[in-house]
Amino acid sequence: MRHFKAHTEIAWEVDTKNFRFFALLTTLATYFLIFLGGLVRVSGAGLGCPDWPKCFGRWIPPLSATQLPADIDPGQFNFALAWIEYINRLVGVVVGILVVVVAVLALKHYRRTPRILMPSVLAAVLTAVQGWLGGRVVSSELEPIMVSAHLILALIIVSLLIYVSVRAYYELNPLAERDAAYAVPMTWGVAALWLLVLVQVILGTQIRESIEILAQSMPLLSDLGLLARVGAVKDIHTFLGIVIASLTWGIAIGLLRGSSNPSPVMWQAAWTMAGLVLLQVVFGVVLLMVGLPAVMQVLHLWLALLLSGVVLIAFAALRQAREV
Length: 324
Known about the structure:
Layout: H1 2-43, H2 79-109, H3 114-139, H4 144-172, H5 185-217, H6 223-228, H7 232-257, H8 264-290, H9 294-323
Helix pairs in contact: 1-2, 1-4, 1-9, 2-3, 3-4, 4-5, 4-9, 5-7, 5-9, 7-8, 8-9
């Protein structure tokens, strides 16, 4: 009987480690996909494949204009843009498969653990919706509001995956936060910070939408000229950025100094939050002073999404500390 119990515990630990591995792998792959999607947008490759799910009527993009179907204008074809978009779609398929694997493993091993099961299954459902929405983005010819919805949904999916990954860690290490003794208000402060970062991302997408619309009617204006005409949303975005930076540093210091024994997870999360928000301030100043360099736009957005993920890790650690 004792041997059977030990064997069961070992099998459970292996299953939990495998699940955590796939959850973490899927989270990292999703972040890479978001970064790749940003590169697609700033490179102008969003319509590199003007149809969906095929590309110029083919499952594999043409290598030259001579391979285009007879009913397609060769002037629409750009080899580099077509393949950039196609690679983005391939990575999206791989990420979709990984999300499904995580959901299946959750159904198999965590049917009685709603905090892991529910977000895993929801991430899989939302990933299917994201695939459908990707088709609508192409058919709308990159309508700004559709592109923004696509991004926000990606943020929700990766947030679910992060939460699942952290909860899987605490399944293996349930006492990791036992002696931390974080102040109770910190949980609410971290939750508020995550919501503020989400709002900030939405405001950033609205600024991008406004610039794209203005550029159509004023194509001769520089990026800074267009940015100056965005209106109040830019000022709100700047002010909120200052608030988020101040709050992040205050929370990071509070989490580390206000605890008798912060866990390694919390140490890493707090310092990473502080570092990411500092980089965000630098990138934001560059964008306001220099213009809108394509790579800087991608990094600015990507770092914001990374920050939201690290804040979520801190939130999960605080919840765990209250339960042990």
